[in-house]
Design brief:
With 105 residues, this protein is mostly helical. It contains 6 helices and no strands. The relative contact order is 0.04.
Length: 105
Amino acid sequence: MPPLKAEETRLLFRNIDEPKLSSIRTYRRFGGYQAIRKAYKDLVKAATPKSQLDAAAAAAAASGKVPAYMTNQISNYQAALERLTGGDSSSSSSSGATGIASLFG
């Protein structure tokens, strides 16, 4: 096997002699968090509408009719809540979050 060159052996430890290498500031100075920063920016860019027309189309799609399976699932959750609370009027859907919060406190 041929001997390794100095720059090949220092790939992992190329900045090992740097003072304060364990600090976040030094890590960032050498390019730390670049991959995370790029991934975050790409996600934000992908989630942002390209124009007002895209935003209006997304709003129109979001304000459509609720699917039947979702309505049935909500009804099942409400029935389960009624069974758990014994039909107590303080936990009915008219009281909102206050009734649900009373289950935990």
